[in-house]
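Hi support team,

I submitted a single chain yesterday and got back a structure, but I'm not sure I'm reading the token output correctly. Could someone confirm the output below corresponds to the sequence I sent? I've pasted both exactly as they appear in my results page.

Thanks,
R.
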Amino acid sequence: MYSILLKDPRVLFLLGANFFSGIGAGVTSVGVVWLILEKENGEQILGVTTLAITLIMFFINPYVGVIVDRFSRKNLYIFNQLLCFCIILPIGLFGLYSNSFQLWQLIIMVFSGSLYWTLHFPTLLAFVQEIFDKKTYSSLSGLLEVESQAATVGVGGLSGIVLGHIDYAYVFLFDAFTYLLAFILVLLVPYTKTSKPISKTKVTFVSDIVEGFKFIKGKALLAMFLLCSLVPFLFIMISNYLKPIFVNNTLNASVNVFGFSSMIYAIGAVLAGLFIPYAINKFGNKRSIILIMSIFALAIMIMVSVHTVFIFLAVQIFLGIGNAGTRVIRRTVMLHLVDNSMIGRINAYFNTIGLLFRALILALFTSTISIIGANTGYFIMGIFVILGIIGVIFTRKILDYQIEEVKSNVQPSAMSK
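Hi R., thanks for writing in. Yes, this is the structure output for that exact sequence:
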């Protein structure tokens, strides 16, 4: 299934770029979060920082969608790598010569990481849809997931080995140069922009919201599926705040456990990327997504019930399978059913809704985490996942790509009026 794709140099260059930049972004994220937690009132600082960045991304996201649809996806990818390189490199050099990092520098790195992923995912989705054949979408989605999570395995392994043992300045300098390597690899990808140009009229936040509502109008089935299948990803995003607190306070464990948990989670996600396409062929999209989301929910409930390092690390495999498997199917649905000239904005619209939910949940947790603890936070998020499963069951008909009701659900002309 993957052998033919791996003979395509475009696939190899893109996978390589994603892998190296993923290593850089991931190790930076783990290191910066731990450095913030070591500061006085670190939990509150991390919560407020995460909430503030989420709100900023909420307002930026619709514009990101328009930018992805309007400009060269390859140039956007290149810009993203250079931006992070130019931010991380000077901060790493500062730490090398001063033997410390200022809080504002750590916050800037957290912000740059969030901005990187906000631009990366819609750009990559549109880029892949634009340059590859539709027949490869399912396999390519699985392959990209394998690559992405292989990078996360590398992040977890490196974090567990080097963080706390090697000066953070050297770690950040290494991360900066992974972005530079990704930049070089993307330059090698053959590319000609083929998406249709969109209106040159002034883009506003309101006009993008209206664009999204135009898409949703008469398309409730697809809209609800995309929202409900986004829940596992939202859980992982909230977990970026809850996990270090859970490891530190509930498990009384070290940064090494935090780092290795990301590696083990990624192993599960790699397994999902490898086998989900086969599961889809054997059991179909409907049964596959319901099963893997159910595994995800069960893993959460086990984690909040049994507080040992072993159980916590073991559960990460199933969280990886659940989130990555759901994402492969969700990404494939979007590649099949959303026109390339609109996919940036449509993807950004649903991400904006997700960011709104994240902001509300983070606001709740940040103000109450010292009272309820990370364990209760995880339990609440587990309930949201169960509700997401119910929504996916209700909207599972959307996974039949070929039926006319679904195909007519996403006509670009209706969205552009």
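A quick pointer for reading it: The chain has one domain: 7-189+205-416. Let us know if anything else looks off.

Best,
Support desk
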